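Input set for joint prediction.
Command: fold jointly, output tokens.
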Amino acid sequence: MAEIVVEETRIIEDPRGDGNRLWGFITFWGLHAWVLAYCVVMLSAFFIQFVMGEFPCPLCMLQRYGMILATLGALFVIMQARRGELTTARYAQGLGMGLIGVLAGAAVSVRQIELHILPGDPGYGAPFLRLHLYTWAFVTFAIVMIYIGVMLMLMPRGIPQAPAAGSAAWRISTAIIWLFIGVIAANVIAIIFLEGFAPVLPDDPAGYTLIDQLTGR
Amino acid sequence: MILLLVLALLVWRGANRGVVIALWAVGLVATIGLFRYHVTSTLDLSF
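tokens >
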């Protein structure tokens, strides 16, 4: 019994020991994969919006909010790790933010799936790989939920460890972080054009309200 | 969405942890509020 207590104490006090470096590396880049994946998802949504001409409905935008809220949890952990300030408690806080964010996004996805669940309903927008985008959004939220569950099971061994400052890996990490911030900024601009001077999005958008308002159409 | 952008920049700049979590919670509540605003009808489903 006494040996078990000593072993547990050693792990908690020395989460950055040699045995944990691999896990720290995996979880640090796992968080980047999370951030990058949602950047790709939202950039794909922009492609569908601007190139294919499908305007996002309010529920679509709320799913983007859920993705960003969740990914801010990952960003929070990454930045703490890069500064060498990450503790088990802060890691848990970031994962908690991520979990609540994906739960909020999943609730919106489920609502939109249910809106189009009746037989014969064509759904909103064109399907991609046989599923509509809101269904894919739910799939991504479920994947992140599972990811967070696994990360919590790995604690405290899997506390992310950042690479050396200035290294190539550090610069890749910085680039992914700024890509995410850029994607949020692009969403801000897009939503301003979609909403115009209205406080909320139109229920069934058919164009850019701001342009219509400024040109008097 | 502007709040989320500000929040991301604050996280990047290493702002106080309490401020970050509090603003994140405000963003979450705003998202839930918008969801409630846009969900105006009950679903006509029967299983």
